[in-house]
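From the pipeline queue, job 12 of 40. The input is one protein chain; the requested action is below.

Action: predict structure.
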Amino acid sequence: MKNILKYLADLSIWTLALPLAYFMRIEMQVVNHTTDILLITALSLPIKASVLYFFRFHRQSWTRIGVWDLFRILQGVGLVTIIAFVGLFFIRQDIYIPRSIPAIEAVTTILMLSSVRLFARVRSETVRRRDVRRSSRKVSRVLVAGAGEAGIMLAREVRRHPESYMEIVGFLDDNPTKEKEWYLGYAILGSLEDLPEVAQKHFVDKVIIAMPAADGSIIRKVVTLANEAGVESQTMPGLYELLSSNFNIAKLRRVDVADLLRRKPVELDVAPISKYLYGRTVLVTGAGGSIGSEIIRQFTKFNPEHVLLLGRGENSIFKVEREFRSEYPNITFTPIIADIRDYSSLEHVFRKYRPEVIFHAAAHKHVPLMESNPDQAILNNVGGTRNLTDLALEYGVKRFVNVSSDKSVNPTSIMGCSKRVAEYVVHRASLRAAKNQSFVSVRFGNVLGSRGSVVPLFKRQIEMGGPVTVTHPEMTRYFMTIPEASQLVLQAGGLNNNGSIYVLDMGRPVKIVDLARDLIRLCGFTPDVDIEIAYSGIRPGEKLFEELLTDEEGTSATRHAKIFTARANGPSASVFEMLLKDLFGAAARQDNMEIRRQLKRIVPSYSSDLLNNEEKDAKEESKTAVQEDPRIHLSPKRKKQARPGSLELPQAARGALSGTGPISTN
């Protein structure tokens, strides 16, 4: 009913415009041409009615009228005006119609239709502002940091929504060309450095950062200045969030640690990504996890035909399936509850769905837990990866992308070492791959916001009043946001260099204690004053500094500025198969020490305190035995072989592990 009334109102206004045009053209002589005016009005009425309906004028929201709605009015009225000018050549000479009438009528119609809508919008906003003023709730005076497109969009949204209880004071921007300019009726009040002074002068309650593509250092600067001024700081979503959804005021949020670590957005080369994903069946392992689910969110824009959501956790798979079905109705999503350690279940999946692309994100990643359960790390991270690569080779998968970790470099943990062996497994598969297949690994550091991230733990500790526990004052890690890491994983898959280990540009490493201090400040507290920071000591398997490359690997550039290729190394195929069999045997027996010994054989750079202590004790026992029995005289070479279960290997195996042996393709 509402749309019908709007339609009739528009038609009445447009019909009235013709007599008004005559009156403006010939003034009081209009009474002498009443018959002609009524005739022309009747002839034009069906055309105007049809155009109104075709251009959907009645569907426009008058209280939310915008530039594009006015442009639509221009299009409709312009079409009728062109028809009128053409019709002048076919109208009888005895009908009085000046040639300027169609133009005058067009201008009059546009002004009248626009004015009605503008009046409705102004009235609606005035009523809502009046209701807000009558409310007892305080209206926050807001200063917008950033006068670009995002800042103007924010100001426009605040003006349209008085119920947000915000009032824009003005903008801050470092661009000197914008100095003293006005946007939407709001002035540029200074640069970012002027924030404390401007906040005090204009009684600002809140600063909103409207710079979604800004570097983390700029966000940190604004937050620091806002804290100095004693005002609250919020931010618009980052560029990755804005690209995946439309902005509205409800998406304003407090500044998070991820914002402080924000880097220049990744520029994707979409052509190769689209080429290997468009219309494909894609299998994602660990699809319910933070990395796996974000990889799916990122690649859905490339229109795969079918996505297989594989994982062990039924609740997480159910959750992401519902999300994806709602967000991407044109793509088929199939939830699969399966364990990557179960070869027969995986084979059924491959046989039934024939995946063409695989993103392998399923893994046990918790370092201390894997130190206590090394058998599960091996069976899942190594065994599961081997199951997938074997089936991918058998069923002709085109792209296999293994998500690895920086903890696989010179590993000191079971988890890190298992991921390094998984890289070897993927590289071994690449040597057996057909010409149209590609098997790669992508190695990166910690991901902010993932399930295993330290940030949620810090937040809980702050909510409880502290202390915030950090393992060591010098503990540093590489960090990325989940969307950035996922996008680069997709890009690495598009590089199509079979057998590569890709290393992502992680930026600068961050001290964990600095991260903790930033988070405490963002929560409105002072580190070491309101919230204490306590050091708990390094946990088993952890190291102070993570690395992205071993000394032997080195890097070479790729087509993408943030992705590098590490030189693949490792044991030869025959030795690797033998060592892998022994490793799985130790895991099946749950022999934790033997697992560590076998890992050391496969990854010589692996360092374990338990192995080091065992070797030290063995040397002490050997030394004591020699001292107690003078009949024992061992040469250095024999001393090295004295301990049962030592890490000594045959000559061929030693050569392969040291890199001197050939990498067989058999």
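Job complete. The chain has four domains: 2-132, 139-255, 275-447+479-504+553-566, 573-612+627-657.
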